[in-house]
């Protein structure tokens, strides 16, 4: 409609609804010049965001019946973060941070710059008291440090399933646990069943394959 306000859109499906091959998703009515001018851009957006929602629903189906929440990341296409994150929710998964302003996420480079896990957490708490602090750990020893320093959420980076189960027992509800890194379709449910609270998946919004959609014009 930015090309021509006379263009009207009528949707046949709702966001997040499962669709079938050759199903009509929506119809456009308006001048052919505007429809053909906007065809490629509209399809690019729709194909990309439908792919995100489809992958989100696929992952959500894999962990159905567990208590875990699947989260996206900030690994989004430039300019499309909000749209991709909306598509994630349409598929049944959840949003992590929208931007750096939502919460602290302390990773290995931050820890190195601050001189340690405890120092990094203390610095974050001093900068913005009350803002959630999440810290990435790569071992159970680092988990203990993060717990002692008062982290709100602890990201378990590529820990084994056994170590994740141990982490859940050690944490005992003192912080939320998020599994991340190296998680595949074949291991997703096993990770969910360790008892972690969250699993974050960069693949929700990157390395996606566009859904095959097309527009057909009739006069």
Written description of the protein model:
The protein has 219 residues and is of the alpha/beta class. The chain has 2 domains: 8-55, no CATH class; 94-200, TIM Barrel, CATH 3.20.20.70. 41% of the residues lie in helices and 15% in strands. It contains 7 helices and 8 strands. It has a 6-stranded parallel beta sheet with strand order 3-8-7-6-5-4. A two-stranded antiparallel ribbon has the order 1-2. α6 links the parallel β6 (153-157) and β7. α1 packs across α2 (81-91) and α4 (117-127) runs parallel beside α5 (140-149). The radius of gyration is 21 Å and the shape is elongated. 27% of the residues are buried. The model has no long low-confidence stretch (mean pLDDT 96).
């Amino acid at each position: 409609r930015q090309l021509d306000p006379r263009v009207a859109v009528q949707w046949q499906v709702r966001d997040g609804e499962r669709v079938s091959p050759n199903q009509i998703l929506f119809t456009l009515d308006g001048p052919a010049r505007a429809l053909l001018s906007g065809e490629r851009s509209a399809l690019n957006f729709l194909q990309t965001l439908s792919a995100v929602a489809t992958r989100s629903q696929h992952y959500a189906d894999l962990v159905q019946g567990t208590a875990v929440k699947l989260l996206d990341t900030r690994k989004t296409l430039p300019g499309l973060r909000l749209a991709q994150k909306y598509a994630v929710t349409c598929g049944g998964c959840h949003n992590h941070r929208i931007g750096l302003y939502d919460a602290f996420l302390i990773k290995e480079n931050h820890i190195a710059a601050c001189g340690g896990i405890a120092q990094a957490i203390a610095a974050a708490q001093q900068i913005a008291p009350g803002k959630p602090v999440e810290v990435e750990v790569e071992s159970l020893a680092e988990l203990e440090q993060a717990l002692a320093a008062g982290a709100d959420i602890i990201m378990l980076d590529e820990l084994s399933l056994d170590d994740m189960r141990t982490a859940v027992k050690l944490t005992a509800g003192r912080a939320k646990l998020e599994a991340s890194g190296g998680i595949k379709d074949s291991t997703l449910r096993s990770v969910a069943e360790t008892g972690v609270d969250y699993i974050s998946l960069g693949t929700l919004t990157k390395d996606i394959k566009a859904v095959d959609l097309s527009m057909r014009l009739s006069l």
